[in-house]
Design brief:
alpha/beta, Aspartate Aminotransferase, domain 1, about 35% helix, about 425 residues, Aspartate Aminotransferase, domain 2
Length: about 425
């Protein structure tokens, strides 16, 4: 089946009373009926709901559906936020004394998490240029546990050299993690390009209306083969003392997300709530239609901004002038490039005045909403990033980020034209 059909039907067959809408199982716990079945579930002799921190029937439908919609996915796990998805994916591989390699151009919150907060766990980060990955191979050593980047970066809106990153990582048996939030699984499929794990902030385009916070981790089909016997990842191949000596490699299940569930979500508890999972299911059903309109509107606005005398530069890969234009045409569905774009004006004061003057665009630090959003990254989403790192990542004081919504494009252009003055 195609993605549009899978997003509407996969993982649910109207069992029970025949409800067309996926049921919401708003519950903490489950009646095992017998002591034997309870013991079997905890021993993994049977699979089923145990406790909503670990699994929930509504959330399981979301997980099954996103694994199907994200082409090449084998299994998925939902988390409490996109940040929780990133942290759990990395913590599933790295521990004290290890290092990770992350792209210079990623969301500011991810930069802070992976270069500063995670340092307190004894894990260090190295930065690489994901646009071309020419410096990536020189950074890998025996303690490198993963390579993290964004397929379409926020707020730079640059496209990573995904296939080259995957090729280099596979040469050294290192796991790759791609944040596919901005591109969405509809426009781009990193798992089919050799990437091992995809993460999403479901709070963005997947929910679509800014209704809920949540994250998703999807592992590719066949990832077990890379993990089993791989000396970099002993935790999948040696007994887990916290689970009565369980060896994950002995199980006939997708191992990456299973270990996130049984080791990290179990203990740290950053799980998805059933209600949020239900909201994400509703959003996923219309994602393919929305992302097309987001992209069409964004292209019109990018073309307007590119022609405006007070705009120094526009970052949108759907523009023919963009250095990423050919990548979009070759790799992104129908040449769409999402609803995210950014542009530069002369300094912070000018940028601030533009934000304050818009009427349709809301000053909000989210993306992927049906309503259009305007943000100044350097003073908000990236304010914790040191100035030298900001400069290296291309986030200038005059950079303005737009998350283009589903309003009429002409109305949005008129709003920006007035704000630019």
């Amino acid at each position: 089946m195609n993605q549009e059909t899978l997003a509407l039907h996969h993982g649910y067959n109207q069992e029970g009373v025949g409800s067309m809408a996926v049921p919401l199982y708003q519950t903490t716990a489950y009646d095992f009926k017998t002591a034997e079945r309870a013991a079997n579930l905890f021993a993994l002799k049977e699979l089923g709901p145990i406790y909503t921190r670990l699994n929930n029937p509504t959330t399981e439908i979301l997980e099954s559906r996103i694994a199907a919609v994200e082409k090449g996915g084998a299994a998925a796990i939902a988390t409490a936020s996109g940040q929780a998805a990133i942290f759990n994916a990395v913590a599933n591989l790295a521990e004290v004394g290890d290092n990770i390699i992350i792209a210079k151009k990623i969301y500011g919150g991810a930069t802070t998490l992976l270069t500063h907060t995670i340092k307190k766990f004894g894990i260090t980060a190295k930065l690489f240029d994901s646009d071309n990955a020419d410096d990536l191979e020189t950074l890998i050593d025996e303690k490198t546990k993963c390579i993290f980047f964004e397929s379409l970066s926020n707020p730079h809106v640059s496209i990573s050299a995904t296939e080259k990153i995957a090729e280099i990582a596979n040469k050294y048996n290192v796991i790759t993690i791609c944040d596919n939030t901005v591109a969405t699984p509809i426009l781009y499929s990193p798992l089919t390009k050799g990437i091992d794990v995809v993460v999403h902030s479901a709070s963005k385009y997947i929910t679509g209306q800014g209704l809920a916070i949540g994250g998703l981790i999807v592992e590719r089909e066949g990832l077990n083969e890379k993990l089993i016997g791989n000396k970099r990842y002993y935790q999948f191949n040696e007994p887990d003392e916290s689970y009565h000596g369980l060896v994950y490699a002995d199980l006939p299940l997708p191992l990456f997300t299973l270990r996130v569930r049984l080791s990290l979500i179990r203990d740290i508890g950053a799980c998805a709530t059933p209600y949020n999972s239900w909201l994400f299911i509703q959003g996923l059903e219309t994602l393919s239609v929305r992302i097309q309109r987001h992209s069409e509107n964004a292209l019109k606005i990018a073309q307007f901004l590119e022609s405006h005398p007070k705009v120094k530069k526009v970052n949108y890969p759907g523009l023919e002038s963009s250095p990423y234009y050919s990548k979009v045409q070759e790799n992104f569905k129908n040449g769409y490039a999402s609803g995210l774009l950014s542009f530069e004006v002369e300094g912070f004061e000018k940028a601030k005045n533009i934000l304050d003057a818009t009427e349709i665009f809301s000053v909000v630090v989210n993306i992927g909403d049906t309503k259009s959003i305007i943000t100044h990254p350097a003073s908000t989403t990236h304010m914790q990033v040191p100035p030298e790192e900001l400069e290296a990542s291309g986030v200038t004081l005059g950079l303005v980020r737009l998350s283009v919504g589903l309003e009429d494009a002409d109305d949005l252009i008129a709003d920006l034209e007035k704000a630019l003055g």
